[in-house]
Structure formats: structure tokens, C-alpha cells
Backbone:
């Protein structure tokens, strides 16, 4: 009799808790995920933080959160031997939580961002299981907004200058970064590369060391970088990913250098639209615009929406003039040569950066 009473009591408790979890298990349960920082460069690490809160009296003994995780984002242990309550299998990130009433659980993971890209997670699946497992687990989808933008690796500008003095030295330094002698920015200490005519004798006497005038840059200098995402004229996508990635990295280095030197710069490519719905930036200056350029390069797809010759024809038809144009491409054909000549006829200074598909370098030249 006692055993039957105990069995009946256990069965009743099991049924009651099953119904309680059925109606209130997923209620007042919130989950968030974020990356800190939200932007980084290739090869850097970010912290992925997931937080789950249970704002009710009912404890949650088993909550499983399942989501997709881009393979380019790799979990790394923060200390030797660390495992953590998480699983990462075939691009899935699964976390298991036990949450007391009116409590919050926060977990942080160090993530290595191996490749550039725009990684956004908009939803996760949350599965709630009651204590005794009488009923099937409840699964619901929760909306989140976890985004990390991984900028491309930036090729060192001076490294590029050593590889091609024509492009980096003559074009950028002598033509696009021309100092205006009538615009004085200030004074700075003398270096051995400064001509004596720039010495400011009054400032030198006042400071006790040689000081030279520092001129500002000409205000109307513009640079436009055009990248061909086709590594081969006959194929539209991913023929040589490494070649295109080198082009992206080199474009990032050139644009960073130009913007840091006050040059109004822009970027465009013949790629399909990015996740943000754009594939080019307008002209601009400053750190804010540099961030826009890096974001565009991070989102760039290695798939073209049109032949590069037609893309260049659109540039020529836009009326662009009196601009420094750097064309980065892995190949060159007669149709492209004709459009490049048309761009030059409009007063543009056009330079070519021919990406080498085998060695990882490039060649440049004004002639085509």
C-alpha cells in the first residue's frame, strides 16, 4: 500500500512538473550573443559572449542552444587543457546550460578569425528539457543579432613600394601625394631627407634644434582603386582564390596609406553584391571612411557579376576625370586596353597592377 502511494505520488509530481515545463519552461527565458570587438583583422581574436537568463521561479535543468558557426571562426582555449561546456562539430556551436530561478549564466569563448568576411548570426534553436524527461523536449527559435566583420590582412605599403617603385613611388608619392607649398600644416623636427630650404629658422632658434615646415597636401587629389575578382577571363568565380585574396590585401594596404595621407579615395569591384548590398564605396577621407573601405573589402565576394571590361566601360561612362585610377587585375585583354585608354583621354592617371597568379607578386605599368 505504501509503495503504491509513493508510486502514485511520484507519477503525479512527474505529470505536474511536465505540464509546468510545458507551459512555462520557455517563458521568460532570454538568450543573447555578441562579439567583442565587432570588427577585427584577419588572424586576430575576438571574444564571443553568450548570455542566457531565466527570469522565473521555475529552474531550468537542461537548456541546449544550437547554432551554426562559420568554419572561418575557430574556437581557441583561453588556457591549456580548457574544454568548456560546448561542442563545435561541422560548423555547429552547441551549448548546454543549467539555470537556477531568477539567474543568469554568461560564457565567453576566444575565437580566432582566420579569414576576412562578414559573419552574421540571426537566430538560434533553444531546446528546453524538464527534469524527469516525461515529455519530449521543447524547441523554439530565438532571434539574435551577433555580427563580426573581419577585415582583410593589410599588405605593408612600404613592402609593396619595394616590389614596385613605379606604382608606389612615382604614382602615389610624386603624383597623388603632392605637397602644396602654399598650405602650411605646422613644423616638425628636421630629418636627413629634408631639403635645407624647408628649415624654419625661427622655430629652430626657439626650440634649440632644427625644425622644418610641414606642408599640407593638395585638396583635390583623388584615388580610385578598381579590383577585378575574376582571376581568369573565362570563369566567373573562384578560379584562383589566393590570387584574389592577395589583390584584396594589397588594395587594403594602398587605400589605408592613401587615406592616412589625406587623399580622397574610393574602391569598387565587379563582384556580386555583398551581404550589405554594396560592392563599392564613394570618395571620402578620414578614419570613418577607412572603416567603410575595410568593411567593403571584408564583405567582397570572389564572384563577378559582369566581365571586367564591361565594368570598366561603366566607370568610363560615369564621367570620372582628373583622378588617379589603380586597376588591379590578374589578366588584361584588348577590350580592357581600349577602355583604359579612354579613361586616360579624360585626364585620369591610370596605373595597372597585374596580379601574378603563381608567384604571389605583381607587375605594374602605365602602358598597356
Residues:
Amino acid at each position: 500500500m505504501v509503495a503504491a502511494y509513493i508510486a502514485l505520488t511520484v507519477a503525479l509530481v512527474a505529470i505536474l512538473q511536465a505540464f509546468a515545463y510545458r507551459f512555462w519552461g520557455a517563458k521568460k527565458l532570454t538568450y543573447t550573443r555578441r562579439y567583442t570587438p565587432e570588427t577585427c583583422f584577419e588572424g586576430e581574436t575576438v571574444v564571443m559572449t553568450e548570455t542566457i537568463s531565466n527570469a522565473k521561479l521555475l529552474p531550468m535543468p537542461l537548456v541546449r542552444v544550437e547554432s551554426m558557426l562559420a568554419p572561418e571562426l575557430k574556437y581557441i582555449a583561453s588556457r591549456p587543457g580548457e574544454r568548456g561546456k560546448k561542442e563545435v562539430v561541422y560548423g555547429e556551436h552547441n551549448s548546454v546550460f543549467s539555470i537556477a530561478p531568477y539567474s543568469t549564466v554568461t560564457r565567453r569563448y576566444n575565437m580566432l578569425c582566420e579569414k576576412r568576411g562578414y559573419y552574421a548570426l540571426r537566430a538560434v534553436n533553444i531546446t528546453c528539457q524538464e527534469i524527469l524527461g516525461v515529455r519530449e523536449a521543447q524547441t523554439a527559435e530565438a532571434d539574435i543579432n551577433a555580427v563580426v566583420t573581419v577585415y582583410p590582412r593589410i599588405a605593408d605599403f612600404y613592402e609593396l613600394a619595394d616590389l614596385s617603385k613605379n606604382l608606389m613611388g612615382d604614382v602615389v608619392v610624386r603624383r597623388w601625394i603632392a605637397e602644396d607649398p602654399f598650405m602650411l600644416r605646422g613644423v616638425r623636427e628636421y630629418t636627413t631627407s629634408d631639403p635645407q630650404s624647408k628649415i624654419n629658422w625661427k622655430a629652430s632658434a626657439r626650440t634649440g634644434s632644427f625644425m622644418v615646415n610641414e606642408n599640407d597636401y593638395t585638396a583635390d587629389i583623388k584615388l580610385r582603386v578598381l579590383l577585378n575578382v575574376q582571376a581568369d577571363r573565362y570563369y566567373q568565380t573562384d578560379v584562383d582564390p589566393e590570387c584574389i585574396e592577395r589583390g584584396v590585401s594589397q588594395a587594403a594596404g594602398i587605400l589605408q596609406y592613401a587615406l592616412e595621407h589625406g587623399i580622397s579615395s574610393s574602391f569598387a569591384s565587379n563582384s556580386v553584391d555583398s551581404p550589405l548590398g554594396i560592392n563599392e564605396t564613394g570618395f571620402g577621407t578620414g578614419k570613418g571612411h577607412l572603416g567603410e573601405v575595410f568593411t567593403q573589402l571584408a564583405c567582397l565576394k570572389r564572384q563577378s557579376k559582369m566581365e571586367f571590361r564591361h565594368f570598366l566601360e561603366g566607370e568610363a561612362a560615369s564621367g570620372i576625370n582628373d583622378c588617379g585610377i589603380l586597376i588591379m587585375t590578374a589578366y588584361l585583354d584588348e577590350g580592357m586596353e581600349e577602355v583604359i585608354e579612354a579613361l586616360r583621354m579624360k585626364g585620369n592617371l591610370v596605373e595597372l597592377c597585374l596580379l601574378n597568379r603563381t608567384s604571389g607578386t605583381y607587375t605594374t605599368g602605365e602602358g598597356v
User: Anything to note?
Assistant: Residues 128 and 138 are 5 Å apart (CA to CA). The first strand starts at residue 29 and ends at 36. The chain has eight helices and 17 strands.
